[in-house]
Every structure is written in structure tokens, then in C-alpha cells.
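Saturday, quiet lab. Running sequence design on the C-alpha cells for the scaffold JK sent over.
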């Protein structure tokens, strides 16, 4: 799905189901990070009007997702926990070439963002199919569709603005890199855990 090499072990859903409060808090902060990341890309690439326009929409959607998760948290009598770190994303971040030129940095950040969307989408799909809670099943199905759209947006801009970069090769390298990273995950009740 979406070019990913390694599928998540479905037993990860059983771990999630054992601690719904934790997955909701972790998920809420994933959405916050997604909104923040989109704003960072806008900040670094403000001259690209079409990119700014679409990523402003995307950032709003991520903030809405954050709000939707928070509503579920409140409805269930929980309180949003403190911000969670995302070690999967932090490991993926190491792929990015920090010493390259501006275009290379932009392409890498867009591909990094597309990859997180792809993996989130895969996790949401698995949740929507297997989680026994009907409200969460529907919720994750809807989010899966939204995040798939984000994946497409990030990849599109990487290809559009990365004309001097071999974007497809870089994307393939990231897919290989991600497959190695994700091998060690699927064992905890977090969205990328
Ligand atoms: Fe989202
Ligand atoms: Fe997203």
C-alpha cells in the first residue's frame, strides 16, 4: 500500500485495544506534529504560492484532526496527556540531507512528510479494519482517506519542485530506509509504535 515495503503485524491492533487512552493521546500529538510540519514547510518555501495555498489547507485539516481526537478523548472521560515523542519519526528524520542545497532540502522534507502520511495511512487502515470499537473504526477509516490525500500532495510537490533532483531515486531510497526503521516497531500502543 502506497509503496510501503513492510506491512504492520495485525497483532499491533490488539496492543492498541488494550490501551485506548494512550493511543488517543499519542494520536492527538501526531496530528499536532503534522500541522506544525506543514507550517514549517510553508515557512521555508514561502515563494511557491501553490504550495503555500495547499499546505495551508493541509495544516488546517491536521489541526481539525487534532481537534477531532481531542473531542473523542473528552467524550470518553479522558484528559489529553502530555506531548508524546515519536521515535519512528525521529529515526526517519535522519534520512534527510541537511547539508544539501535548498531544493534538495525541500524535496527531502516533502518526501519525509509523504512517508509519514503513507505509514499513518497504513496504520489507520489496519485500525479501521480490525478494531472492535465501532466509533473508532469509522473514525480511522475517514482519517485514512484524508491522510492518503496528504501523501499525494507531498509527493506531487516533491516532483514539481525537484526538477533538478532525481526525486524517484530519492523516494526509493527513503522507502528502503523506512522498511529498516519500521522493522523494530509494531509493538506498542502508539500510532507509529
Ligand atoms: Fe491528520
Ligand atoms: Fe496528514
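Result came back. Writing it out in full:
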Amino acid at each position: 500500500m502506497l509503496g510501503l515495503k513492510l506491512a504492520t503485524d495485525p497483532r499491533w491492533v490488539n496492543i492498541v485495544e488494550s490501551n485506548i487512552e494512550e493511543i488517543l493521546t499519542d494520536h492527538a500529538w501526531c496530528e499536532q506534529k503534522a500541522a506544525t510540519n506543514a507550517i514549517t514547510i510553508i515557512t521555508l518555501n514561502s515563494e511557491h504560492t501553490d504550495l503555500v495555498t495547499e499546505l495551508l489547507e493541509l495544516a488546517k485539516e491536521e489541526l481539525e484532526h487534532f481537534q477531532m481526537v481531542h473531542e473523542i478523548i473528552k467524550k470518553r472521560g479522558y484528559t489529553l496527556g502530555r506531548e508524546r515523542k515519536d521515535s519512528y519519526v525521529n529515526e526517519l528524520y535522519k534520512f534527510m540531507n541537511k547539508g544539501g542545497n535548498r531544493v534538495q532540502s525541500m524535496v527531502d522534507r516533502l518526501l519525509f512528510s509523504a512517508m509519514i502520511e503513507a505509514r499513518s495511512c497504513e496504520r489507520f487502515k489496519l485500525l479501521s479494519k480490525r478494531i472492535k470499537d465501532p466509533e473508532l473504526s469509522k473514525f480511522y477509516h475517514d482519517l485514512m482517506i484524508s491522510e492518503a490525500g496528504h501523501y499525494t500532495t507531498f509527493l506531487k510537490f516533491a516532483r514539481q519542485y525537484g526538477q533538478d533532483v532525481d526525486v524517484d531515486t530519492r523516494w526509493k531510497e527513503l522507502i528502503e530506509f523506512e522498511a529498516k526503521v519500521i522493522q523494530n516497531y509494531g509493538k506498542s500502543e502508539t500510532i507509529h509504535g
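Notes for JK: The helical segments are 11-17, 20-44, 49-75, 87-93, 102-130, 134-161, 167-182. The chain has a mean pLDDT of 96. Ask whether to fix the surface positions before the next round.
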